Amino acid sequence: MFAVRKQDFPILQQKVNDHPLVYLDSAATSQKPQVVIDAIAHYYQTANANVHRGVHSLSDKSTTAWENARQTVASFFGAKQEELVVTRNTTEAINGVVYGWADHKLKAGDVVIASLMDHHSNLVTWQEVCGRTGAKLKLIPVTDRGELDLEWLKENLDKHTQLLTLPHVSNALGTLNPVEEITQLAHAVGARILVDGAQSAPHLPVNFKNMDIDFFVFSGHKMLGPMGVGGLLVKNELLKSGEMKPWLFGGGMIASVTKEKASFQLDSAERMTAGTPDVASLVGLAVACKYLAKIGMKEVLAHDLELVKYTLEQLGKNEKIQIVGPKTNRVGSVAFTYQGVHAHDLAQVLDSVGVAVRSGHHCTMPLHTHFGWSATVRASFNVYNTKEDIDVLVKALKKVEQVFGS
Prior knowledge:
The chain is an alpha/beta fold. The protein contains 14 helices and 17 strands. The strands form 5 sheets. The chain has a 7-stranded mixed β-sheet with strand order 4-10-9-8-7-5-6, sandwiched between helices.
């Protein structure tokens, strides 16, 4: 097990309401190590120029930084550099699949299968595209255990299914879904599969090639990188065949332009990148990938699983707490309700003693409605968290009892 280095993360050294900050909201966004912050500053101080557009030295330097960062991030996920489309975040990456693939592939009579545990960023985009194309959207139910109903999926997958999409890890339930098994089921009927990796990329070893999925989306800010940068991994054959098309148009991705029409770059990485990219943020994300790779993603996962197990054990001692989601086979977070106390009120009490958690529906309103939860409280983890942080959370929950008399 690796040694947790809170000192690598400057923001964690501060106090909140005169208490040391205990940050348990990493599923919303992670904190950044100093090396990532330094890398972004260093780029702006030494290499800032537009990429691929100048013959001067600074432009060459910036282009090299961009290409090296692309290679680092792609390799981190076991993908080829040309399979990485750099986006602002997971949401934009999903929309990229909608506009670059679904809009010209889907038609009336086709089926898209998502799930009840999907984040709004994934669910709403497919509601919209199905509304435009006449395709039908079906949702995999969630069992009382907080897992996908695979029997329902097997019964509903057929030749009409064009796409199956699901979260690798549920942001609300923490459920680790069996992506490999589901991918085989989807491909058996000729469907493409899109995996939302926003909550798996920070915690699991991900190998895009070995998973054999068609699309994988992620956000840099949840995996120790900066906000405003993420990615879409697209299987190479979809790019080469033109099944996945550009969805943003303009400078950079153009090969030639006449008054009547334009042709696009043959290189898929350039063809999918219109306009000036956020080079500094990608450089920062690449350093975050190196930071995680140095720890080792297997070690990161083992650390995470230990924190989840410990949290479940400690919260399970409180009879007023109901854990949300499965008791096993979960990663990254533990969400719960507290008898007689609204999630927002509980989160405010915790904040008063320096404990930062997330409260609400976590952008999964259909899931919360299905289970009858008005809101839940979520404690989520990253490499800087320790069991001592969980102990502080458990101690802070005693103040909830004092405040509300519960």
